[in-house]
Write a structure and sequence with these properties.
This protein is of the alpha/beta class. It has helices at 14-27, 40-51, 98-101, 116-131; strands at 3-9, 32-35, 61-62, 73-76, 87-90, 106-112, 135-141, 147-150. An eight-stranded mixed beta sheet has the order 3-4-2-5-6-1-7-8, sandwiched between helices. The two termini are 20 Å apart.
Length: 151
């Protein structure tokens, strides 16, 4: 059964949170797919993961880089699981069909709580997954920017 974790951003931006989540996941040896809402954002996220910290290295790529099946972290706006990932990270409003989500052991949905559209989409997606019987977990940032699991 797939586990779904919703990360509600309130103090940090996607640009601050995504690389840290990718680092943690990469250290487990999991292959990761980052699914973005639009093709235009693929290049931005790709660049972000190269430049967010000059002391870190996250091996990743996109369709432009080729060799999708060999990429530990693959960034795309397409729903295919090109690199055989077990972890799917949804950003920028990506909301694939629930059947697609079942290919993964775990799905992280990162959304901006200060954006009404993003918040409403996350709520709608939560309800859809819940109605399908998904195992849901909700994480919200506290005043220090750390994530706390809420019930």
């Amino acid at each position: 059964m797939t586990r779904f974790d919703f990360y509600h951003l309130q103090k940090s931006t996607l640009e601050q949170v995504l690389p840290k989540l990718c680092e943690k996941a990469y250290m487990t040896g999991s292959h990761i797919k980052v699914l973005v809402g639009t093709e235009e954002r693929v290049d931005f996220i790709n660049s972000l993961l190269w430049t967010y910290n000059e002391e870190s290295f996250l091996p990743h790529g996109s369709k432009k880089d080729g060799f999708a099946e060999d990429q530990p972290i693959f960034i795309s706006s397409e729903e295919n699981n090109e690199n055989g990932a077990s972890l799917l990270i949804l950003v920028d409003g990506a909301m694939p069909d629930i059947k697609v989500l079942q290919e993964y052991e775990r799905v992280l949905n990162i959304f901006d709580g200060s954006n009404d559209h993003s918040l409403n989409n996350a709520r709608s997606y939560w309800k859809e997954i819940k109605n399908d019987g998904g195992e849901l977990h909700y994480w919200q940032q506290n005043d220090k920017g750390s994530f706390e699991q809420k019930m």
